[in-house]
Design goal:
The chain is α+β, with helices and mostly antiparallel strands and 180 residues long. The chain has helices at 2-14, 17-37, 42-90, 115-121, 143-156, and strands at 96-100, 108-113, 134-135, 139-140, 159-166, 172-179. It contains 5 helices and 6 strands. The protein has a two-stranded antiparallel sheet. The protein has a two-stranded antiparallel sheet with strand order 3-4. A two-stranded antiparallel ribbon has the order 5-6. Strand 5 (159-166) and strand 6 form a beta hairpin. It starts with a helix and ends with a strand.
């Protein structure tokens, strides 16, 4: 009986409603033989199977809705992520992400760089070296300026700094970097 009820639950996870209902019907047919062999009255057997059917239908619907909701949520998240990526790729601003570095307090590493930064500046977060004088996207400033920038970011949640960046092809670019 437990295996048959488990089959109803599994059917609810992947199959359409008609398969779930058919599974419930088959479960009732298999259990009908067992309940008749107990010598119970026909009315008691009927009530038992109606209650069992109702409970199984509600459980299979609940399982199905949870799984369907999860799949829809995952799909919405995938579409949102894809749309965000498209917006970031077309954005004229260079968007990047920082994450705390493990090699010292108040230090950050690049965790994400928008495609336009890679295209315009040739920056790859995996290959960008960071020192005590590193700030923002890829700025190298004096240690005092870097410390002031880190303090602003930590205490105020945002920091702005201007610095020069030398691209891999040797071009010098002036950047106004605002980080939140």
């Amino acid at each position: 009986a437990v295996l048959l009820i488990t089959a109803v639950g599994l059917a609810a996870l992947w199959y359409p409603r008609w398969v779930r209902l058919l599974t419930i019907l088959l479960t009732n047919l298999f259990l009908l033989v067992a309940t008749f062999s107990l010598g119970t009255e026909l009315v008691t057997v009927g009530i038992y199977h109606l209650l069992l059917s109702g409970i199984l239908i509600m459980l299979s619907e609940a399982f199905s809705r949870v799984v369907t909701g999860f799949h829809e949520s995952v799909e919405r998240e995938r579409r949102s992520s894809q749309r965000l990526r498209q917006i970031l790729d077309r954005n004229p601003a260079i968007v990047y992400g920082l994450s705390p570095a493990t090699d010292g307090p108040g230090r950050y590493r690049l965790s994400f760089v928008g495609e336009n930064a890679r295209d315009l500046l040739g920056i790859d977060p995996r290959q960008t070296p960071f020192t005590d004088a590193s700030v923002g996207l890829a700025g190298e400033v004096t240690p005092a300026e870097a410390q002031a920038w880190r303090y602003q970011l930590k205490e105020h949640g945002e920091a702005t700094i201007t610095y020069r960046l030398v691209t891999p092809n040797g071009r010098v670019v002036g950047l106004w970097d605002s980080c939140r």
